[in-house]
């Protein structure tokens, strides 16, 4: 379960930036192609925030879809998974989104 280590890193960064202030909400962007399971991440968030300034905070997860650009036909298309094939049949594609894993914001107070 790699979600635990990812979530622990997020909580560590958030707690450091909060500088002792209670954290109410943490918003993250986790692309569909990262193989991170949102429900697992929420479970891990509750575990890793226990005893910290982020305990009880809400975790908001934005999941942008995977998209790619085909170098052969110049089309942009959506990826449902990591099968990197353009509808034209070409495998010469460049992923343009869906691999994001970032903290977007946090609300303290």
Number of strands: 6
**If you compute it from the alpha carbons, what radius of gyration comes out, rounded to the nearest whole angstrom?**
17 Å
Low-confidence runs of at least 5 consecutive residues = none
Q: Tell me about the largest β-sheet.
A: 3 strands, mixed
- What sequence of helices (H) and strands (E) makes up the elements? HEHEEEEE
Q: How many separate structural domains? A: 1
- The helix tally amounts to 2
What is the C-level CATH assignment? Alpha Beta
**Helical proportion?**
25-40%
- Strand content range: 25-35%
Shape: elongated
Strand order of the largest sheet: 2-1-6
**Amino- and carboxy-terminal Cα gap:** 31 Å
Q: Could you say which structural class the secondary elements and strand pairing correspond to?
A: alpha+beta
CATH topology: hypothetical protein PF0899 fold
Whole-number mean pLDDT: 95
Protein name: Hydrogenase maturation factor HypA
InterPro entries: Hydgase_Ni_incorp_HypA/HybF_CS (IPR020538), HypA/HybF (IPR000688)
Pfam families: HypA (PF01155)
Family: Belongs to the HypA/HybF family.
Keyword list:
109 residues, alpha+beta, hypothetical protein PF0899 fold, 6 strands
Structural account:
- The chain has 109 residues and is an alpha+beta fold.
- It has one domain: 2-Layer Sandwich (hypothetical protein PF0899 fold).
- Helix content is 27%, strand content 32%.
- The protein has 2 helices and 6 strands; from the N terminus they run H-E-H-E-E-E-E-E.
- Strands 2-1-6 form a 3-stranded mixed sheet. The protein has a 3-stranded antiparallel sheet with strand order 4-3-5, with no helix packed on it.
- Helix 1 crosses helix 2.
- The two termini are 31 Å apart.
């Amino acid at each position: 379960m790699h979600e635990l280590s990812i979530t622990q890193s997020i909580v560590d960064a958030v707690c450091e930036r909060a500088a002792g202030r209670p954290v109410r909400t943490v918003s993250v962007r986790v692309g569909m192609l990262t193989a991170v399971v949102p429900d697992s991440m929420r479970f891990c968030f509750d575990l890793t925030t226990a005893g910290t300034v982020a305990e009880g905070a809400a975790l908001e997860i934005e999941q942008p879809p995977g998209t790619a650009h085909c170098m052969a036909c110049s089309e942009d298309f959506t990826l449902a998974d990591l099968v990197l094939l353009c509808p034209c049949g070409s495998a010469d594609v460049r992923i343009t989104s869906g691999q994001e894993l970032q903290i977007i914001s946090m609300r303290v107070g």
